[in-house]
TrEMBL record:
The lineage of its organism: Bacteria, Bacillati, Bacillota, Bacilli, Lactobacillales. Signal peptide: none annotated. This is ComF family protein. CDD domains: PRTases_typeI (cd06223). Belongs to the ComF/GntX family. PANTHER family: DNA UTILIZATION PROTEIN YHGH.
Amino acid sequence: MTKCLLCGRYYTAKLSFTSLFSISKCQEGGICPNCLSKFDPVPAQHCPICYGKAENNELCLDCRNWRQLYGNDLLSNQSLYLYNAAFHDLMVNYKRYGDYYLSYVLQTLCSNQLNKIKADLYIPIPTSSEHIAKRQFDTISAIYDNLVPLTHMLSKISGFGAQGEKNRLERLASKQTFFVKENFKVDRKSYRVLLLDDIYTTGRTLYHARDALKKVLPNAKISSFTLCR
Ligand SMILES: [Zn+2]
Ligand SMILES: [Zn+2]
């Protein structure tokens, strides 16, 4: 029996042949079918660039917006779940109340899919130092740290407020606050870079992160992964 990380009930986890022989990082617990059913996976029909809502696999509104700014150099993003009420509650408890334990839930929700994406550098979106001080941990790194080797290359200028506290227009108008840490040693070969964040809302944060990275890694192939879209 496995204890569900979210509701605490015991359930029988389906064991695959390989999981009998490998020690999974999430073996202490999983998410029971009932809790899992509250999360909405991104449907098969989605924007081919960012996994957003779109009809007939056409570009979503956000990507059409970004096309005006970036032309065809759009950021290819993969997301797993839609931002529904269950996800909202999970993220509020995780971020607002600093519930570190929920990082295991988020890891369980994304580990299989993330393991399929191969990159040379996995770069988390940095949390501002004020937020780390408030919650005592970095909410993005805490999700991905156990799953892939992280390269903490980006930093954030403090004092600009969190994207989560802004409305859509304020988010889109927000200025670049990311920079590559000084003296960060990378050779400039072409790299496959995967940016990691929790939620893709307008894309503003991830495009800013890509802009900052491109200054030092002009040949990198940069894409992104988020739990939610
Ligand atoms: Zn449960
Ligand atoms: Zn899109």
